[in-house]
Design a protein that fits this description.
The structure is a homodimer of 191-residue chains.
Chain A lengths: L10 H16 L6 H7 L4 H7 L11 H14 L6 H11 L8 H12 L2 H24 L6 H21 L7 H16 L3
Helix pairs in contact in A: 1-2, 2-3, 4-5, 4-7, 5-8, 7-8, 8-9
Chain A binds a DNA duplex (30 and 30 nucleotides) through helix 3.
Amino acid sequence: MGAMSRWPSNPRGRLEQAAMDLFVERGYDQTTVADIAMRAGLTERTFFRHFADKREVLFYGGPVLQDRMVGAVEAAPPEAAPLTAVAAGVTAVAPMFAGRHAAARLRQSIIDSHPELQEREVAKLAHLAEALADALRARGVPDPAARLAADSGIAVFRAAFAQWVTSPAGDMRPRIDECFDEFVKIAEAVR
Amino acid sequence: MGAMSRWPSNPRGRLEQAAMDLFVERGYDQTTVADIAMRAGLTERTFFRHFADKREVLFYGGPVLQDRMVGAVEAAPPEAAPLTAVAAGVTAVAPMFAGRHAAARLRQSIIDSHPELQEREVAKLAHLAEALADALRARGVPDPAARLAADSGIAVFRAAFAQWVTSPAGDMRPRIDECFDEFVKIAEAVR
DNA sequence: GCCGATGATGTCAGTCGCTGACATCATGGA
DNA sequence: TCCATGATGTCAGCGACTGACATCATCGGC
């Protein structure tokens, strides 16, 4: 096993850092993978052993977020309504952003600077929605309700995140609650 | 429905058709852009003059759909609630799928066969959602409501489309209405 | 009917993302 | 000590994509 994260090693972290730095310094498409690897003291080939492609270096936190969110949905009481379970999933993830406001902001500015990265971001969110929908189906929620509830949860998350990053630092939780309330109001106002 | 254009020209259509054929015959990543161009009687360079990249050849109908949907939102009565306006946009687009069930099904099976294409598809939907949100903001709907209502509309559209393609041929309109009702029920059940 | 402008296409060369195959090297356990 | 293992380096190559320039067809003006 022994994957120690001492200083000289931790190649993955070094690659992530080098990539972020270079993307900020020169921009995403003025940075080659070879550049990133060189700054991290590694080779291009090694980069691709740690990340599936150039974009992925910015999205490595994804799986953790997904596991947490899906776990909270699975842990919700069986009698909870679909959207209630999804809301539990979304709020369960809020603490993961504590103290990361500056980093999230920087990361988001990079993503917003290049369509290729935005594409990957929405793909990650779609994947997350799919995992949420699967968790709901496992709770007995049929389609299309499962898909709709999952996509609704992601919509709330996206809106809350957007509010959170563009505001001065603070907790993400109240933003989620606000957006969730707003979401319900919008849906009810249609009557 | 063939409408396979006449012999002379219409290079874009020929490229689209050649790409579809080859993707079905050999699969997406066993098909090079040079293959597509050759079958269409053109060169690789010409392919990239008509489509921004290899994926785009499958997504050329996007802008039309978006214009129609956004137009319907803009045309909705000013006093209509955000989600009502969005619903008008989504339903306005249903007729565009009439008589295209088989084609849509084929296209979807190709997209589902490769992550790169799924990524592009959700990116297109995200772009559509953004356009919808802009139309709502132009109607005076503030954030995060505009974003939430737009994403909700896209969620309904996705769910309705998924129901429609996986069912025997028929009109898409009732699917949209069903999914919209289901969506409202889900949102209300949270109380 | 000729002629030059315009736009679409072909040709060529090159960069970069990404992969397979194989060599090297450090580490740790038998 | 030795060798199994995993991480890294090296090399060759494919395919997506782009810029630059040449060619060619078409068409309006003369």
